[in-house]
Amino acid sequence: MTLFQFEVFLAIVQTGSFTRAGELLNASQSGVSHTIGDLEKELGTTLFARHRNGVKLTDAGEQILAHAREIIHHTEQITQVAAASRGVNSGTIRIGAFPSFSAHAIPGIFQAFRSLYPGVELILFEGSYAEVEAWIRAGVVDLGFLAEARDGLDMVQLLDDPYVAVLPADHPLREQDIIAIEQLAREPFLSLKSGCERLVMQAFQESGLRLNTQFEVAENATILSMVEAGIGVSVVPSMILSAMPANIAVKPLHPPIIRQIGLAVRTQHIVSPAAAAFIKAARMQLAESPV
């Protein structure tokens, strides 16, 4: 048995697919299949049940999963001890981030960190909130930017990103300084389905309101274009508005809705020196140049 076999095994568990596991590991689907086939042959048992919609762990696979995670966890600890002896002048940091944060904050953070530690390689994994969280838990990334704390993960708070109401430029509510969420409940609503909508839904539910949702949209640019075209109104994080169309009105909300963005790790007790330095650099950069 090899560490790579267990890394492949965990990647398949994480993604639910041999093909997506290969994409995650930069390996071919056939290479992933061959690796797992060799592991199953060596163990004398089947680890995955294949079906049309993906793969599922067998009973034996379920029992082996916890041990595989422990093996990778202890391997990372050994690597971090070695990294500590070298200091922060070398190594690799794998970082997860969601798209709106990647677009508006990652360039500045990476540039600031590389100016301090040019010998450390930075690798960015971009995905949804759920994907970033799963990558952190599985050890695919060393740390990840997330909105809101997650059970079982340590999180360093970095910044608050307030949500705003976005309206067509000729909308009657454009004259108001602040928009009450009750006023939006009567409007045709465009929901941003990227993960950040959870806080919006929660705010309306806590106020006893039901949204008149007309469309659910995954891309930030698309929902802003639809608002500009007069199709409806929406509530979005301020961070996505740097490339805002000209014909949109932006208003603060009452009560405010705020997503708290931070850097999450499995536990700060096993963070490598390079990762700890990255966290410090990210905090300094965002304090000096908030997005």
Automatic annotation (TrEMBL):
Source taxon at top rank: Bacteria
Signal peptide: none
GO function terms (MF aspect): DNA binding; DNA-binding transcription factor activity
Keywords in alphabetical order: DNA-binding, Transcription, Transcription regulation
Domain HTH lysR-type: 1-58
GO cellular component assignments: cytosol
Pfam short name (any one): HTH_1
Membrane spanning residue stretches: none
Family note: Belongs to the LysR transcriptional regulatory family.
Name of protein: DNA-binding transcriptional LysR family regulator
Originating organism: Paenibacillus methanolicus
Lineage, top ranks: Bacteria, Bacillati, Bacillota, Bacilli, Bacillales
